[in-house]
């Protein structure tokens, strides 16, 4: 459990949930970013109820699912990929696994490059490519993996070092000319690492390197997709990035389980054996996803996420300034993190972050935990939050952090 005393969620509306303890909480974690629109959204509820009224909860892709076809067409249109094909899964982990299967089969190579501090899921292949050491417990892997810099954990955030990062990637690939690299997989903002963005231009530089060497680029947009960073896709912060495969999940279906991959037709159709996902793209989830996508587009939620994220980030920067236990506020849009440290040593400190996490709950605010050392509080509210909720959430988090900072400074 994430808290000392487990918290049950029994109901929700807007950006507020009620716990089994009878208290209301402002939710700045969104079910790990999956409740993109918040709770009890009429348009999504009505779409699900219409599907429920048919009596059909599942058919599988051996039959036509109209909402799945409509959703695939919509995602293909917004993907920015030439001649795109979409494949639906039940989760982000399964979607990453699918992308790795497609890339390695298409390239006839099991060599993959990923980023340090990255997290891509909890399955065999997804864990293998993840650069977060906390998730590499078995030491076993179905792929051969090398890791290159993510950059932002390096002091100045990696800005000004992009050329060096690209050169390191070039050297890694060129050092073994007989080894074909299947793909580079990258998150535009590293979510589990604490909402750490790649340096400006870094993803574009990496994309040029891998494409110049006839390798593939997989963008893991499980947490960054659907507008959360202030752009529809997180990779759009760098111009001219064209993924070969784009992985999505989390908020796409308004909280119902759904993930998938959209990519170039040649890559998506390369498997020599039949492939389906029994529950991937089921009628309930795809009906909810079509309604969610309509909501995002009609209300221009990427723009709203950018505005609210800038306001929230500025309030946190101002309120946390001068605290000895705070390293930095980081992130993009409404994918933010606050990194904490031991006030005495300056080392990343999970104990401080955990204490702030608990104090936020005590004040009626739900946030998450992350960071490569477990030292970050993660902030991922629904994209529909109001200006008043931005101010209230920031004030609650700042108050919690200040209280913990006083305790640590006095000890």
From TrEMBL:
InterPro entries from the xrefs?
Aminotrans_3 (IPR005814), Class-III_PLP-dep_AT (IPR050103), PyrdxlP-dep_Trfase (IPR015424), PyrdxlP-dep_Trfase_major (IPR015421), PyrdxlP-dep_Trfase_small (IPR015422)
Cofactors demanded by this protein:
pyridoxal 5'-phosphate
Entry keyword annotation includes Transferase: yes
Annotated GO molecular function terms are: transaminase activity
Q: What Pfam families does this protein's entry cite? A: Aminotran_3
* Domain of life of the organism encoding this protein: Bacteria
Write out the entry's keywords from A to Z. Aminotransferase, Pyridoxal phosphate, Transferase
Entry's family note: Belongs to the class-III pyridoxal-phosphate-dependent aminotransferase family.
What PANTHER family does the database record attribute to this sequence?
Answer: ACETYLORNITHINE AMINOTRANSFERASE, MITOCHONDRIAL, AMINOTRANSFERASE CLASS III
Q: What is this protein called?
A: Aspartate aminotransferase family protein
Q: State the species of origin.
A: Streptomyces durmitorensis
């Amino acid at each position: 459990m994430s808290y000392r005393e487990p918290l049950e969620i029994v109901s929700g509306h807007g950006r507020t949930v009620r716990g089994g303890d009878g208290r209301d909480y402002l939710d700045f974690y969104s079910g790990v970013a999956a409740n993109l629109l918040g709770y009890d959204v009429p348009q999504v509820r009505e779409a699900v109820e219409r599907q429920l009224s048919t009596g059909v909860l599942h058919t599988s892709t051996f039959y036509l699912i109209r909402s799945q076809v409509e959703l695939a067409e919509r995602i293909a249109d917004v993907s920015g990929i030439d001649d795109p094909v979409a494949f639906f899964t039940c989760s982000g982990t399964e979607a990453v696994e699918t992308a790795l299967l497609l890339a390695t089969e298409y390239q006839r190579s099991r060599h993959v490059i990923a980023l340090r501090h990255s997290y891509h899921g909890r399955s065999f292949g997804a864990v293998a490519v993840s650069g977060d050491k906390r998730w590499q417990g078995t030491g076993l892997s179905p792929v051969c993996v090398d890791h290159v810099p993510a950059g932002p954990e390096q002091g100045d955030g990696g800005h000004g070092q992009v050329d060096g990062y690209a050169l390191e990637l070039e050297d890694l690939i060129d050092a073994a000319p007989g080894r074909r690299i299947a793909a580079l997989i990258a998150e535009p903002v590293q979510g589990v690492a604490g909402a750490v963005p790649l340096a400006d231009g870094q993803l574009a530089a990496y994309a040029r390197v891998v494409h110049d060497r006839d390798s593939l680029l997989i963008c893991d947009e499980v947490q960054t997709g659907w507008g959360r960073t202030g752009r529809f896709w997180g990779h759009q912060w760098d111009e001219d990035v064209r993924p070969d495969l784009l992985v999505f999940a989390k908020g796409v279906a308004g909280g119902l389980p759904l993930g998938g991959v959209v990519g170039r037709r040649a890559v998506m159709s390369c498997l020599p054996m039949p492939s389906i996902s029994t529950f991937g793209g089921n009628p309930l989830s795809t009906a909810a996803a079509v309604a969610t996508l309509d909501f995002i587009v009609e209300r221009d939620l990427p723009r709203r996420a950018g505005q609210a994220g800038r306001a929230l980030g500025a309030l946190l920067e101002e309120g946390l300034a001068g605290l000895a236990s705070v390293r930095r506020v980081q992130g993009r849009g409404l994918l933010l993190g606050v990194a904490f440290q031991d006030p005495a040593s300056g080392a990343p400190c999970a104990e401080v972050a955990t204490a702030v996490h608990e104090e936020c709950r005590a004040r009626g605010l739900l946030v998450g935990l992350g960071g490569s050392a477990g030292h970050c509080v993660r902030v991922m509210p629904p994209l529909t939050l109001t200006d008043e909720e931005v101010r209230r959430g920031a004030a609650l988090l700042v108050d919690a952090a200040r209280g913990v900072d006083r305790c640590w400074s006095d000890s």
